[in-house]
């Protein structure tokens, strides 16, 4: 399976074409779709059972096309140029399958008329097996439905998969026919590969059983009541969710939420698609629903670079509009929209997503058409016009990734400038579209803290949590371990929100349930479960984590101990800087962090406890389950070690040292262990006991129910691993021109001789230098055949440099972390994209391969001599010029996750 890396996959491009809105929602029969809903959403609709007429009973519930009779069985070329052949070469099972050649357009492919087969309001399972001819590079193939309703065609993606020549892949998904039709067809295409040939066999279309009618859980606590007195608890919806006020969807909104956001219906393309022609039909329904049910209504969004009609930015001659014309249109639009709902909408996202450091514009502003025409002033005008239209509405500036310190600072400074000019900015909205691992909870804490000095309101405006870590993962069902992981992550995040409840006036989810989420079509089409309620509106573990965490099973977390020996003296030996600091969270803050190392016979642990109130009975408790048995009662190999703040009973039964710190105290300990070796796994947990008089608080790394004294089933897992490789970078400044200057002669050489994939291929000899401004890298690559046939940058022959400047060794990228790739033609790609300007590179061919010479600017405060930075370098190789990466050679981290997780990279000492 190919990883996402930096360049978005072909699936993303298809999804971007299909996704017209940030909310994509399933519907029930009889409810029209919202006007701006994604054309690409295909999922199980929520429907009650219905009676079956005689005519309906005659409709087949399934069909299959296996081509075993030697005919096309009704399939035809939808473009006319295709050549469809029943061939033994295309057989998945049996003797024949369908061979598709002669395509000239992305939408070309075999098509089957299913008009007589599918019924409105029913859900169908569609599947087909696909394969590519021998010698064809891996490419996406999709199954799509063409629906004709009221004379207009809609093209609805069901599923895409990455097909290859190495084996058959099942292409399957669900489709709900939600509209009356004149005609309906199923077809198979490869949209971004218009000449791709492929094989198809064993196509099956079968009707899914009618689902049981949905009822919401009326006897569980209402979320809005759980957070009463702290902040509003809101959701975004599309009009079809609340159009029937007696539907389960509408019931769920009424029960749990006291703030409502229109997902699409108040955006410019929905309210004024044509100049001067306003349409408030859908928006009025949502606002009326909110008013009728006593729910505060929030407006999203007035000014945005996306979902704004093209006419807004151009004059009658097709030229960019003048600033004056743009402002006139802006004022009229804001006056009309905001004025219509004056007194009904309590807050507006006035401008949305105006910061984009990657665009390299002054002050980090996005290079949108708004900016190109009017500069920063358009932001000021938008707030002024909105305030004039409704002086009582709270006006917000809204953006995503505000956890990123660079982007956040640009946004902070923009708000500060606006307020200094008297511009009526009342608040900042943090979208907070997050993942199951990134960003870290502490980053969200820092995000809110960073805006306190501005004395403005803050809201979490678009919260959801994808269960994926990259664009290639996909699950048919929601794995239980991820359900628990998601729940615990939501609990930790809401602990932070509660901690900052004096700053936050609302926390708003971007969708109310897992069926109604944009993340089922973006960044790729796949199942996703990012919210608190499932597809049938039932409370998930994520809900219970916020309401009653005891109802959530314990998550089994994992950590690693690096191989190294230390002296137990409370002093920070250099090797401790290599170990990853693992937080122990409680109440929205880190109660402690710990690090682990090991050698033969010992597990070493370093714990920094944040506890300024001294009590001699404060302690750190470490639990070891030698065989990782996960039992409900202790066995002979299960041990508990207590290390008291007072230092009582040192050396019994484990040696330890206590040091007073500015924020609390530190424990360094050596615990005896049997059978220590690389790869050994122990059951493991750490608990902090904070005593104050008769009261005490517990904070645990893994078992948040604190049952460690009698039960090891809630322990996490600690794995003993090799320590990272180390190298030295000497100080010096290189000229980046692809030539090996004399200064490189003093640099230490390392080799990419570990294999992430493959067991042979291109490798590199690598040297490094550094100065006060940047890190320099020289890679001499041995490569007998250089190629960039693949459109994916990571599959081209290239060198990748990974830098963790502060050596945090985090499981996700921090703001100082970067992935810098340069191919043999000196074409760069960088993640995150905002760091592209930090890279300077040169490439030069050699008789044995190529040279990459690169300089990477330090991020923020440069490191000093003696600093340790995280560092790794790898070589990507397409060995036979087929567009598929055959081998990856790396210096240190063989996990194949360095592009998203830097916890295993090597170390570079700056001398």
TrEMBL record:
Enzyme Commission number, as recorded: 3.2.1.8
Keywords, in A-Z order: Carbohydrate metabolism, Glycosidase, Hydrolase, Polysaccharide degradation, Repeat, Xylan degradation
Domain GH10 stretches: 217-549
InterPro entries per UniProt: Carb-bd_dom_fam9, CenC_carb-bd, Galactose-bd-like_sf, GH, GH10, GH10_dom
Protein name: Beta-xylanase
Annotated family: Belongs to the glycosyl hydrolase 10 (cellulase F) family.
Pathway: Glycan degradation; xylan degradation
Presence of the UniProt keyword Repeat in the record: yes
Domain of life: Bacteria
Enzymatic reactions: Endohydrolysis of (1->4)-beta-D-xylosidic linkages in xylans
Database matches in SMART domains: Glyco_10 (SM00633)
């Amino acid at each position: 399976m190919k990883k996402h890396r930096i360049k978005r996959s072909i699936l993303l491009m298809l999804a971007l074409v299909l996704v017209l809105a940030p909310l994509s929602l399933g519907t029930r029969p009889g409810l029209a779709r919202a006007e701006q809903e994604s054309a690409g959403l295909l999922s199980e609709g929520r429907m009650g059972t219905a009676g079956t007429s005689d005519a309906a009973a005659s409709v087949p519930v399934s069909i299959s096309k296996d081509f075993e009779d030697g005919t096309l069985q009704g399939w035809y070329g939808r473009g006319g140029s295709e050549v469809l052949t029943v061939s033994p070469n295309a057989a998945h099972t049996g003797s024949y399958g369908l061979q598709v050649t002669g395509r000239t357009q992305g939408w070309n492919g075999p098509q089957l008329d299913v008009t007589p087969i599918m019924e409105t309001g029913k859900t169908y399972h569609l599947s087909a097996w696909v394969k590519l001819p021998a010698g064809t590079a891996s490419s996406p193939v999709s199954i799509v439905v063409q629906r004709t309703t009221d004379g207009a065609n809609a093209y609805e993606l069901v599923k895409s998969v990455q097909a290859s020549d190495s084996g058959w892949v099942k292409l399957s998904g669900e489709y709900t026919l939600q509209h009356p039709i004149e005609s309906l067809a199923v077809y198979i295409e490869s949209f971004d590969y218009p000449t791709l040939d492929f094989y198809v066999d064993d196509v099956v279309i079968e009707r899914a059983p009618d689902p049981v009618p949905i009822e919401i859980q009326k006897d569980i606590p209402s979320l809005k009541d759980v957070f009463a007195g702290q902040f509003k608890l809101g959701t975004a919806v599309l009009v079809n969710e609340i159009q029937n006020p007696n539907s389960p969807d509408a019931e769920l909104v009424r029960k749990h939420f006291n703030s409502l956001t229109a997902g699409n219906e108040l955006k410019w393309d929905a309210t004024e698609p044509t100049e001067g022609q306003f349409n408030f039909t859908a928006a009025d329904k949502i606002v009326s629903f909110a008013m009728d049910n006593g729910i505060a209504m929030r407006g999203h969004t007035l000014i945005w670079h996306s979902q704004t009609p093209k006419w807004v930015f151009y004059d009658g001659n097709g030229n960019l509009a003048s600033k004056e014309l743009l402002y006139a249109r802006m004022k009229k639009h804001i006056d009309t929209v905001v004025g219509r709902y004056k007194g009904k909408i309590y807050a507006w996202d006035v401008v949305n997503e105006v910061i984009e450091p990657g665009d390299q514009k002054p002050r980090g502003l996005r290079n949108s058409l708004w900016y190109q025409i009017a500069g920063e002033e358009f932001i000021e005008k938008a707030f002024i016009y909105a305030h004039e239209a409704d002086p009582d509405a709270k006006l917000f500036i809204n953006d995503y990734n505000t956890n990123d310190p660079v982007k956040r600072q640009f946004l902070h400074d923009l708000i500060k400038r606006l307020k200094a000019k008297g511009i009526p900015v009342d608040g900042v909205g943090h979208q907070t579209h997050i993942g199951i691992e990134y960003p870290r909870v502490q980053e969200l804490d820092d995000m809110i803290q960073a805006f306190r000095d501005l004395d403005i309101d803050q809201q979490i405006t678009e919260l959801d949590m994808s269960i994926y870590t990259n664009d290639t993962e996909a699950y048919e069902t929601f794995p239980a371990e991820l359900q628990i992981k998601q729940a615990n992550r939501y609990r930790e995040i809401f602990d932070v929100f509660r901690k900052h409840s004096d700053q936050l006036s609302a926390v708003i989810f971007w969708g109310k349930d897992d069926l109604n989420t944009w993340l089922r079509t973006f960044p790729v089409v796949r199942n996703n479960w990012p919210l608190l309620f499932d597809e049938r509106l039932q409370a998930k573990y994520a809900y219970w984590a916020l309401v009653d965490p005891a109802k959530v099973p314990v998550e089994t977390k994992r950590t690693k101990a690096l191989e190294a020996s230390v002296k137990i003296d409370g002093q920070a030996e250099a090797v401790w800087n290599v170990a990853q600091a693992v937080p122990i969270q409680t109440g929205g803050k880190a109660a402690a962090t710990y690090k682990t190392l090991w050698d033969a016979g010992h597990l070493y642990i370093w714990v920094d406890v944040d506890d300024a109130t001294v009590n001699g009975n404060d302690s750190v408790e470490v639990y070891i389950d030698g065989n990782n048995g996960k039992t409900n009662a202790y066995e002979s190999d299960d041990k508990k070690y207590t290390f008291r703040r007072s230092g009582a009973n040192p050396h019994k039964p484990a040696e330890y040292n206590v040091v007073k710190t500015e924020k609390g105290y530190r424990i360094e300990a050596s615990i005896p262990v049997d059978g220590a070796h690389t790869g050994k796994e122990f059951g493991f947990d750490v608990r902090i006991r904070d005593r104050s008089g008769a009261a005490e608080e517990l904070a645990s790394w893994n078992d948040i129910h604190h049952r460690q004294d009698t039960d090891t089933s809630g322990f996490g897992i600690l794995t003993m691993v090799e320590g990272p490789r180390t190298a030295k970078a000497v100080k010096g400044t290189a000229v980046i021109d692809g030539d090996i200057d004399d200064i490189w002669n003093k640099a230490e050489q390392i080799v990419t001789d570990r294999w992430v994939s493959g067991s042979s291929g291109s490798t590199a000899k690598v040297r490094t230098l550094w100065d006060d401004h940047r890190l320099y890298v020289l890679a001499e690559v041995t490569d007998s055949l250089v190629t960039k046939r693949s459109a994916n940058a990571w599959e081209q022959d290239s060198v990748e440099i990974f830098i963790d400047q502060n050596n945090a060794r985090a499981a996700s990228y921090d703001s100082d972390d970067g992935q810098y790739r340069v191919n043999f033609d000196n074409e760069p790609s960088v993640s995150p994209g905002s760091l592209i300007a930090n890279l300077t590179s040169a490439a030069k061919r050699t008789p044995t391969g190529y040279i990459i010479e690169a300089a990477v600017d330090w991020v923020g405060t440069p490191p000093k001599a003696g600093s340790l930075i995280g560092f790794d370098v790898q070589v990507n190789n397409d060995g036979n010029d087929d567009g598929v990466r055959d081998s990856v050679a790396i210096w240190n981290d063989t996990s194949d996750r360095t592009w998203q997780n830097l916890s295993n990279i090597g170390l570079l000492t700056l001398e």
